[in-house]
Amino acid sequence: MSFAALGLSEEIVRAVTERGYTEPTPIQAQAIPVVLSGHDLLAGAQTGTGKTAGFTLPILQRLSATAKPTTAKAPIRALILAPTRELAAQIEESVREYGKYLKLHSMMMFGGVNINPQIQKLRGRVDILVATPGRLLDHVQQRTVDLSHIEILVLDEADRMLDMGFIRDIKKILALLPKQRQNLLFSATFSAEIKLLADGLLNKPALVEVARQNATAELITQRVYPVDRERKRELLTHLIKEHNWHQVLVFTRTKHGANRLAEQLGKDGIPALAIHGNKSQAARTRALAEFKSGELQVLVATDIAARGIDIIELPHVVNYELPNVPEDYVHRIGRTGRAGSEGEASSLVCIDERKLLNDIERLTRSEVPVVQVPGFEPDPRIKAEPILNGQNRGQGGRGQGRGQSAPRAGGGQPRSGTGGKPAGGHGAGRGAAPVLHRSGGRGR
Prior knowledge:
- This protein is α/β, with parallel strands linked by helices.
- The protein has 2 domains: 4-209, P-loop containing nucleotide triphosphate hydrolases (Rossmann fold), CATH 3.40.50; 220-392, P-loop containing nucleotide triphosphate hydrolases (Rossmann fold, 3-Layer(aba) Sandwich).
- It has helices at residues 10-18, 26-37, 51-65, 85-98, 116-122, 133-142, 158-163, 167-174, 192-201, 232-242, 255-267, 281-293, 303-306, 326-333, 354-364; strands at 41-44, 78-81, 106-109, 128-131, 152-155, 182-187, 206-209, 220-226, 248-251, 272-275, 298-301, 316-319, 343-349, 387-388, 391-392.
- The protein has a 7-stranded parallel sheet, with helices on both faces. It has a 6-stranded parallel sheet with strand order 8-13-12-9-11-10, with helices on both faces.
- Helix 2 runs parallel beside helix 3 and helix 6 (133-142) packs across helix 8.
- The relative contact order is 0.11.
- Residues 393-444 have low confidence and may be disordered.
């Protein structure tokens, strides 16, 4: 099937072809006709499935068919809400690229930057607005944006927006929109909260799902590397240098941990920068640009900052620390293996993270192969330790340092609290747990 066969104009098809795409992905093939028909849509799609084009292309088609002359001051007709600055920037870039031969205008707005240039741009023509909820409400409060003519609303990565606590902001925004409009909701997972939001937002929606919920991409080779908590940074450096890895996206659980790891990798001779919510937008944009171009070898990121990182053929994702929430593992490794390209997802797993690994394997219904690197075998004398407030008591040895995050231990340990003092030696502590092994030397 071609893009033209879906009902898209010659101008849009030409722009899509120039970006190297000739056939629609499954989510695009299913979502585009629904959006063009004017129906509401509830779409379940993992990252890397082409979902952004699944809604931007038909929106461009619908708006261009009834566009007013470019000289007229036209109202904002489409609103796309995204959870992070990076994702908003990525979406708006797609709108511009796919709409390059159309007489439509778009802009993005997000926090962390001066609001005045955004106010200035809103005085001109804006047909499609891509925004993060918080900054959009800033403009609403200052009366610099008019949402009373919105025809199409998109909530992208709705599950992440709920995770980040945006539900109140979303409800405030919905109250400002016309009741007669088309609504499109995209989510990687369909939790109870997402279903509740969809029930209140969507009117007889078409349902599109292109992958089993919480499935991991088939083109991603996954590996677990068992290692002691204090030797993670040493093992990461070894893997990067031994295998000559380039464009490596590394996940930590805290901002402090991302900063410290990037600094330590730099001392090991590996160019690395950290990206997280405390970084200025200019610093985040610069780091991302250097990483995309290949100039920067390693980008260390927290989960929220990594949303919206869209790099074609990103070869390596590393979980320096497993996430507390198993679904986040799926989102993390979904940054590689995109658009038909192969990728590798490596997880450095210490004894504290055994339960988290089990939770991930239970969610994805697959067992991640274990690879033991000679010289980095875990010390069987080390006991599992709880992770309190993102900090492991034994953290602070070689490579991780105080404040570096790690997942909470199994056995129902709390997720919050006050971390204790770093333990000496190998960080032995309370709560014995077996070393990460599986049968036949690798089985459980």
